[in-house]
Amino acid sequence: MRPPMKVLVIGGGGREHALVWKLAQSPHVRTLFCAPGNAGIAQERIAATGAPVQCLPIGAEDLSLLLTWAQEHRPDLTVVGPDNPLALGVVDLFEAHGLRAWGPTRAAARFEASKVFAQQFMQRHGIPTARAATFTDPRQASQFVVSLNGRCAIKADGLALGKGVRVCHNLNEAQTTIEDFMIRRVLGEAGQQVVIQELLEGIEISLHALCDGQTVVPFPTAQDHKRLGEGNTGPNTGGMGTYCPTPFLDEAGVATVYEAILQPWLRGCRSEGIVFRGLLYPGLMLTADGAKVLEFNVRFGDPEAQVYLTRLQTDLLELLLATVEGRLASCRALQWSPSASVCIILASAGYPGGYRKGVPIHGIEEAERLPGVKVFHAGTARENDRFITRGGRVLGVTALGPDLSTAREKAYEAVRCISFEGMQYRRDIGFQALEWIRSHKS
Ligand code: AMP
Ligand code: GLY
User: Fold this and answer.
1) Distance 66 CA to ligand 1 centre (A)
2) Which of 141, 294, 328 lies closest to 226 in space, CA to CA?
3) Counting atoms of ligand 1 from 1, which one is nearest the CA of 201?
4) Do residues 156 and 182 make contact, with C-beta atoms less than 8 angstroms apart?
5) Which of 135, 255, 358, 411 is the S-S candidate for 141 at Cβ 3.0 to 4.6 Å?
6) Domain boundaries, the chain
7) What pTM does this model have?
8) Which atom of ligand 2 lies at the shortest distance from residue 297's CA?
9) Does any ligand 2 atom lie closer than 6 A to the CB of residue 304?
């Protein structure tokens, strides 16, 4: 039996609410902190003790304050949710001070922080991806997009708060993007180098895999809905809804992806001396020509975490410790609930552009009284005895059901309990899966 543990989670969105909620169920967790957390996280209680989770007024990117707090309070494990603190090197910093942290080091986080690094790594190691090239010269970039007829994805090299990728369907869009990124520098230094990929067509899915540097353990597949509008139209967002599992890759399909993508990725890491401990989240396009990697992320997806962690039956703390300690080979068989999980994001009016904060939210408790429903908070705050909005993505209404369409109905039933002024959400989460299931039945 492990001694009771003190855990710190860094971040304050829906993903971190899901991480905290799941960690709070671990029999080994005695105290749980979240920096900065949110109003939903502050309501969680630790199963083993009944004590509340404590939110700390420290920003996820305030590395020096995080370190000061951790040196004083000595958490047994720090779990990093978002990509920015990873790219800033929070894991390296904690490890340098003898503090155990879950997540990749700064060097290993380059798979997400640098599109150029990730693309060139894939090319070096034969990982299936889009045909692509890297440019610092806008004229050469222009010539390349002409060769692609303007059908391409243009990606600024650095982290750009989700604004660094533009998908272009014609030359006009592509040339404007090159000008915006590389000449006008609308993203600042991030636009100094760009990766330009050919446009891939197919169904886009999210894969997640834990890796301890030696062993990769894939999760079932999930799908996010990144566009704001129904039918995958409108502007890109952080993600408007997810479900898990998807019907697009069966077990054999996941095994193929493991062989074609995860194994060469791991061999590549080893050969380049990169020790990746944490979670790898490749975004995949299932093309007519097989699965291809669009991008790598180095953390749980948000809102993928909400659907994965509601289905995960294995103790999350054990898995995260095994990742940090290089023991994943002994946890290959993760236990997943046979249920499907669906998460619907409720967003503020105006999101993903500017939005108003401080709008009162009604009906969360009522939604959570429905069986199998969990409402994860993202951008919320508490004002006296009520919840108010504080972000673009406000809540992730998540439901489990025996199959996708039942889980989806339950999630939408819960959504109908909740209201706030200007609330927007997609009514078609899971539509590609339902179409796929329908067409494969007949
Ligand atoms: P990324 O941040 O690289 O995943 O890009 C954001 C979104 O742009 C992805 O989720 C895809 O929907 C889309 N995208 C990126 N690269 C491509 C590509 N090569 N072909 C088609 N769509 C893409
Ligand atoms: N679900 C999209 C992301 O986390 O990047």
Assistant:
1) 33
2) 294
3) 21
4) no
5) 135
6) 5-102, 131-198, 203-441
7) 0.97
8) 5
9) yes
